[in-house]
UniProtKB/TrEMBL annotation:
The species this protein was found in: Streptomyces edwardsiae
Residue spans binding DNA: 37-56
Signal peptide stretch: none
Domain (HTH tetR-type): residue spans on this chain: 14-74
Keyword Transmembrane helix among record annotations: no
Protein keywords: DNA-binding, Transcription, Transcription regulation
Protein name according to UniProt: TetR/AcrR family transcriptional regulator
Domain of life: Bacteria
Classification via InterPro entries: Homeodomain-like_sf, HTH-type_TetR-like_transc_reg, HTH_TetR, MT1864/Rv1816-like_C, Tet_transcr_reg_TetR-rel_C_sf
Length: 240
């Protein structure tokens, strides 16, 4: 096989793989992850099921690919929000990243539901999803690290009975950060996705109307709980 032939086949495989995943995302939007079917995807693409199995041997393999893509897309959105606020202080960068995560979720509700919604019965995500899943969390950890190296972090209160678990989490997630900060960061991360999930899945209907302002206030409070300090006033009188 010549190199040019190999290149053509490689490009064709990339294109077919992309088409399969795009059709699968369309089915996620209309049917939900539990009803995702390789046969249905193949039928919509005009492929034989046996041909599709050469790309994704099982539904779980296809789900895994979609989950990794969703995490990578979310991570890229978090990184872009961080970079856009690179000249701001830690609180504003934190808020920008949280708003970037929310904006991604509102623009990709079905992909968000795939990674943060109800688990798909019978499916267990393999370890190959972990690096992509960590990508957005590492952005938040990076903001805390920058704050500690620069203006500092205020250690949140930590109950004595939680300290062993906080020390373990810090060792696993961010050994250079105080356990008090890591434990509170994990709670804040969960609360961030709780806020987004409540908005996305309708729990804020008839409760919160000005959701942009409410969200910005809520994640600002979360920034305070994790120990981000307010060293100076920003241009509009708010924390930098």
């Amino acid at each position: 096989m010549t190199s040019s032939t190999h290149g053509v086949r490689a490009r064709a495989r990339i294109e077919v793989t992309a088409a399969i995943k795009e059709e699968a995302r369309r089915q996620l939007a209309h049917e939900g992850a539990t009803k995702l079917s390789l046969r249905a995807v193949a039928r919509e693409l005009g492929m034989a099921s046996s041909a599709l199995y050469r790309y994704f041997p099982s539904r779980d393999d296809l789900l895994t690919a979609l989950i990794i893509d969703a995490y990578e897309s979310l991570g890229a959105a978090a990184e872009a929000a961080r970079d856009a606020a690179a000249d701001a202080g830690p609180v504003r960068r934190w808020t920008a990243v949280c708003e970037g995560v929310r904006a991604w979720a509102l623009a990709h509700p079905h992909e968000y539901a795939l990674i943060y919604g109800t688990p798909v019965p019978g499916y267990t995500a393999p370890d190959t999803t972990v690096p992509a899943a960590e990508r957005s969390a590492l952005v938040i950890i990076g903001i805390l690290r920058d704050a500690q190296r620069g203006l500092g972090l205020a250690k949140p209160a930590l109950p004595d009975d939680l300290r062993p678990e906080a020390v373990r989490m810090a060792a696993d997630l961010a050994p250079d950060l105080p356990p008090e900060v890591v434990a509170t960061m994990v709670a804040a991360w969960a609360q961030l996705f709780g806020l987004i999930g409540f908005e996305l899945f309708g729990q804020f209907n008839r409760v919160v109307e000005d959701r942009d302002t409410f969200f910005r206030h809520a994640v600002g409070q979360l920034a305070h709980t994790v120990g981000l300090v307010y060293p100076q006033q920003g241009p509009a009188g708010g924390p930098s």
